[in-house]
Design brief:
The chain is mainly beta and 202 residues long. It is built from 2 helices and 10 strands. The chain has one domain: Beta Barrel (Lipocalin), CATH 2.40.128. Strands 1-4-5-6-7-8-9-10 form an 8-stranded antiparallel β-barrel.
Length: 202
């Protein structure tokens, strides 16, 4: 009973800590971009018993991006609806959504909130932040493979975004199913983000 209470308390603290993702960070003089669900996703891949690679993704993400290249600062806050998980195989999706893995019924949402951006020259190099998943929060560092801004001919405003990669140990978030039976604990993540510039508030 005590352990269950602590679990619920930790979950509440984690949710409270990231509930402000919809609120902008305090990055001064930064342009703000609303993430486009059509161009924002988290995809994963993991070794499957040493024979092949299982892959899937989470979609319909939302959040905000802030970018101040002159000051070499940035911020990104992402809300991940875990029920959007898709691997292309419904039975596999349902297993991953079960208590064996992501336990989507109890933890329907995951979050990422950046804490630091590092630049190399004028290019984004890494983004470090906190990933909250299954009520557990741990730091991760995303490496940028590309990042750019452009004037969107479709939206008529500036858009910014990029691709990032990292590898996480899933057991840190309590996902340890089959780690002793052949499915690796390390999971590769590819994070795609792109947002359109918000109008300045008067």
């Amino acid at each position: 009973m005590a352990s269950q209470f602590l679990k619920q308390a930790n979950r509440a603290v984690a949710i409270a800590a990231v509930s402000g993702l919809g609120v902008l960070s305090t990055v001064g003089h930064a342009a703000t971009y609303e993430l486009d669900p059509k161009h924002t996703a988290v995809r994963f891949s993991v070794d499957h018993f040493g024979t092949s690679t299982n892959a899937g993704g989470f979609y319909d993400l939302s959040g905000n991006l802030e970018y101040a290249p002159e000051a070499q600062k940035g911020f990104v806050g992402i809300t991940i609806p875990m029920g959007s998980l898709s691997t292309g195989l419904k039975a596999f999706d349902n297993h991953l959504k079960s208590e064996d893995f992501f336990n989507v019924k109890e933890y329907p949402t995951a979050y990422f909130k950046s804490t630091n951006w590092q630049f190399e020259g004028d290019k984004v190099k890494t983004v470090t932040g906190d990933l909250t998943l299954l009520g557990e929060t741990h730091p991760v560092t995303l490496t940028a493979t590309k990042f750019n801004c452009y004037d969107s001919p479709v939206l008529g405003v500036e858009a910014c975004g990029g691709d990032f990669e990292t590898t996480i140990d899933r057991t840190k978030w309590g996902i340890d199913t089959y780690t002793d039976g052949g499915i690796m604990k390390n999971v590769k993540l590819v994070v795609q983000v792109e947002g359109s510039k918000k109008a300045d508030l008067k």
